[in-house]
Design brief:
globular, 44% helix, alpha+beta
Length: 117
């Protein structure tokens, strides 16, 4: 489930250490998260950002050009019923128009990536 956030945020750049490929990949995924006031992202937000980044760099993705412009501002997980869970992803208003165009395809791709975890 995707939701709209009406907050415009500026990107923050985390400091990366040299010589660590996994951190370099996470650094690129971290560009997909923009939080207000230097707040550290949660583990769920990092998972969603990594899924967005994986979809973006996938050679078979048909939404990769649109995903270059998209970043998230928050992600929250809610219990639905007795056994289900829902993840709500909040996007800044600035990128909402792009998200709205690819929302159906983006939901399907994120469900595939996040359900594995």
């Amino acid at each position: 489930i995707l939701a709209q956030a009406a907050l415009i945020l500026l990107p923050q750049r985390p400091v990366a250490t040299e010589g660590a490929p996994p951190l370099a990949a996470m650094f690129n995924a971290r560009k997909k998260i923009v939080k207000a006031g230097g707040v550290a992202p949660t583990e769920l937000e990092e998972d969603v950002a990594k899924a967005l980044f994986d979809i973006e760099v996938s050679p078979t993705s048909d939404i990769k050009s649109e995903l270059r412009e998209i970043y998230l501002s928050a992600a929250k997980e809610f219990d639905v019923g007795k056994t289900g869970k829902a993840v709500v992803v909040f996007f800044p208003f600035r990128v909402w128009r792009t998200v709205k165009k690819i929302q159906g395809r983006l939901i399907r791709e994120l469900e595939k990536k996040i359900s594995k975890k």
